[in-house]
């Protein structure tokens, strides 16, 4: 990659990060290309140099965040720690992203309500691969004798469903810090598997 390509890639990532922030503040449906451009001190037309439309930009935001989450889970899966510790760490990562990237994260729940056909398949595949890492951690825990769950997929769906619910009630001004909530969730949700 030459210098020009590196600069363009960096600018794209900067745009995606700023778009994610704007979407988190204003919500998916209330964010416009103008809002994102204003955040970056760019013209709306300049955004179209990097992205053909708002849908592509939102898809790329989603892809960036889910790829980051996937990479974090892969790192956890590869660590030489107990399956219980892996699952706790994975739950904490999931919660952190669900809280920090709420609006973008929500795009994975029902992509067919937001995206056109060309984006749905890649979203669903990446979302399924992400869930698959939880399945692999559960399977590994069963094989090591740490987990005693019979329905791996159901257990994973309960864990992720409970973790996703945090978006409904979490407030940074609440009784517990984000880190305390992540620890409480991880401790309780791990009990489903043991």
Task: Give short descriptive properties of this protein.
about 190 residues, mainly alpha, 10 helices
Draw up the topology in text.
Layout: H1 3-26, H2 33-40, H3 44-50, H4 54-78, H5 83-100, H6 102-106, H7 117-143, H8 152-164, H9 166-169, H10 178-190
Helix pairs in contact: 1-2, 1-4, 4-5, 4-7, 5-7, 5-8, 5-10, 7-8
Task: Explain what you see.
With 194 residues, the chain is an all-alpha fold. The protein is built from 10 helices and no strands. The longest helix is centred in the C-terminal third of the chain and has 27 residues, at 117-143. The model has no long low-confidence stretch (mean pLDDT 90).
In short:
By secondary structure, this protein is mainly α. The chain has helices at 3-26, 33-40, 44-50, 54-78, 83-100, 102-106, 117-143, 152-164, 166-169, 178-190.
Straight-line distance between termini: 48 Å
- Biggest pleated sheet: none
Number of helices: 10
The parts where pLDDT drops under 50 for at least 5 residues are none
Quaternary structure: single chain
Q: Structural class of the helices, strands and pairings? A: mainly alpha
The coarse overall form would be: elongated
Number of E-type strands: 0
Mean pLDDT: 90
Instruction: Write the H/E string, N to C.
Output: HHHHHHHHHH
Radius of gyration: 18 Å
What is the beta-strand fraction?
A: under 5%
Specify the helix fraction band. Answer: over 70%
